Amino acid sequence: AERSVQVKLVLLGEAAVGKSSVVLRFVSNEFQANKEPTIGAAFLTQKCRLEDRVLRYEIWDTAGQERFHSLAPMYYRNAQAAVVVYDVTKASSLEKAKTWVKELQRQANPNIVIALAGNKVDLVQPSSSSPASPSPEGEEEADDATATPGEGAAAEPESLRQVPREEAEAYAQEAGLLFFETSAKTGEGIVEIFTEIAKKIPIE
Ligand code: GTP
Ligand code: MG
């Protein structure tokens, strides 16, 4: 028979970095452009299939607004995994992520598997390099291609990046975290977070 274990996972991070959007992409493969802030926390579940077993994630999506900070221990208590999210276009959100990692490393289960996710990477990439399904704009760009030089399009979005990938990756390595850059909008890196965490959860 197939093994199936339940894994309690918590998402933490500054308000509006995209925690709920990451979960919505993982659970429903959807994206909402104007997602409302989470109040308190939301609970969702999703299965994750590995070669040798199936995990059932029980996901606590916490609210990032500061007034909810004191609720967080209720959600990370007994959690086997955490995804700490920041926004690659907002440097302060990485600093907030680091404080969450410290809190988890002091107060949560000592064996907790923590992943750091730099979200909204679609905002700092030229759309042509995005691996997502082609968008309607893609067709327009194809029409314009003969008239418009390519370099201009890439230069402007790149300036939105406030957190270099190398900086966050070096921090994650030093702190012992899994690391991903993600986009809840395109889906880039989302399944990977949950699959790589699953591989690190010990078989009971
Ligand atoms: P709180 O619940 O208040 O803590 O916020 P949150 O971290 O859950 O953020 P949420 O998922 O609500 O997303 C905030 C805004 O960012 C929404 O308007 C989303 O549509 C947008 N957003 C989330 N992820 C992405 C992404 O990967 N790319 C882009 N371009 N926008 C995103
Ligand atoms: Mg939310």
TrEMBL record:
<dbReference type="GO" id="GO:0005525">
    <property type="term" value="F:GTP binding"/>
</dbReference>
<keyword id="KW-0547">Nucleotide-binding</keyword>
<feature type="compositionally biased region" description="Low complexity">
    <location>
        <begin position="145"/>
        <end position="157"/>
    </location>
</feature>
<dbReference type="GO" id="GO:0003924">
    <property type="term" value="F:GTPase activity"/>
</dbReference>
<feature type="region of interest" description="Disordered">
    <location>
        <begin position="124"/>
        <end position="167"/>
    </location>
</feature>
<protein>
    <submittedName>
        <fullName>Ras-domain-containing protein</fullName>
    </submittedName>
</protein>
<feature type="compositionally biased region" description="Low complexity">
    <location>
        <begin position="126"/>
        <end position="136"/>
    </location>
</feature>
